[in-house]
Amino acid sequence: MNPLQRTLIEKAGHDNGFEHVLSPAGDAVTLASARHRSQAVVTALAEGFEVCFQPATSALLPELLRSFQPWAGAAGVFWVSTLADLAALLRRAASLSQALPNQAVSDYHAAVAQAVEAMPAEARGTEVERLVRQRVGQARYRDALLAYWGGACAVTGINVPEVLRASHAKPWAECADDAERLDAFNGFLLVANLDALFDRFLISFDDTGYLLTSARLSAGDLQGLGIQPGMRLRWLAREHLHYLQWHRERFLLTS
Question: 26, 94, 199, 255: which has the highest count of C-beta atoms within 10 A?
Answer without folding.
Answer: 94
